[in-house]
Design goal:
GO terms for molecular function: GTPase activator activity. The protein is an alpha+beta fold. The two termini are about 25 Å apart.
């Protein structure tokens, strides 16, 4: 994206309790365009919570979002890098059907 997200000094006070404010605007933009949260970045969990994935040994560095159609994945890097975008090659054109509607 051309314009970086705005800096709001008291964003923690403006959002509802329990809402993550790190990458707040990036996450809102992804939700607006039909993405859903797939995996949260490991450093966004509280120290009291231990996260364990049976299929992966290393923690996730970036939060990963998947489009509701399944055709794309996005990781939120933040800062000047913004997003990492990857198309889902397992979703061939014949498999899409009505998933984009």
């Amino acid at each position: 994206l051309k314009v970086p997200p705005p800096t709001v000094l008291d964003l923690d006070k403006r959002v509802s309790e329990g809402t993550q404010t790190r990458h707040y605007f990036e996450n809102a933009l992804l939700r607006k365009f039909g993405f859903v949260l797939d995996i949260e970045a490991s450093d966004l969990y509280s120290d009291q919570i231990e996260v364990f994935y049976s299929y992966r040994r290393s923690p996730f560095k970036y939060s990963q979002w998947v489009h509701r159609s399944g055709v794309a994945f996005v990781q939120v890097v933040g800062g000047s890098q913004g997003f990492l975008f990857l198309t889902n090659r397992l979703m061939a054109p014949g498999k899409l059907g009505t998933s984009l509607k």
